[in-house]
Specification:
- By secondary structure, this protein is of the alpha+beta class.
- It contains 2 helices and 9 strands.
- Strands 2, 4, 5, 7, 8 and 9 form a 6-stranded mixed beta sheet that branches.
- A hairpin with a 7-residue loop joins strand 7 and strand 8.
- The termini are far apart.
């Protein structure tokens, strides 16, 4: 009886070790590169009017590089300059390297930061990249811009 239990247990352990498939592990770069905002450029000034509200406000960035191929989700945020993104307004998400917004929608987002019509809003815009809950998000440097609220 004792020998049969040992034989069954040995067979079970052997089958566990031999039945596991070898999986390719993802290697994260020791120096991942965050996304880089390329548009709007740092220091840009925008003076749109309501008549221009349907025009495109295009936000672009260079993709993050974690050192492996994956589908990254990017989030675009704005906040008051110097607020360190304590209460940012999320403009949206994308899985590509750009985000198209209308001037009207951007103006409405700026107003959420408590700017009034006629104010010149001093803003910072950044992009964060997400790939997995077990991998730390990468955050771009913030580009400072000015936007006249209408």
């Amino acid at each position: 009886m004792k020998n049969s239990i040992i034989i069954i247990l040995s067979a079970f352990i052997f089958s566990v070790f031999t039945s596991c498939e070898e999986r390719e592990l993802v290697q994260i770069s020791p120096n991942p590169v965050p996304p880089t905002v390329t548009q709007p450029t740092n220091g840009a000034i925008y003076n749109f009017t309501a008549a221009e509200g349907s025009q495109d406000f295009n936000i672009k960035w260079e993709n993050a590089d974690y050192g492996f191929n994956a589908i990254y989700t990017y989030t675009v945020q704005i906040d008051k300059q110097g607020n360190n993104f304590a209460k940012p307004v999320k403009l949206g998400t994308a899985e590509v390297d750009s985000f198209l917004y209308s001037v009207d929608r951007f103006n409405a987002a700026v107003k959420k930061l408590k700017y009034a019509v006629g104010d010149e809003a001093s803003l910072e815009l950044r992009v964060t990249s997400y790939v997995s809950p077990v991998v730390e998000d990468l955050i771009s440097s913030a580009n400072a811009i000015k936007f006249k609220v209408y």
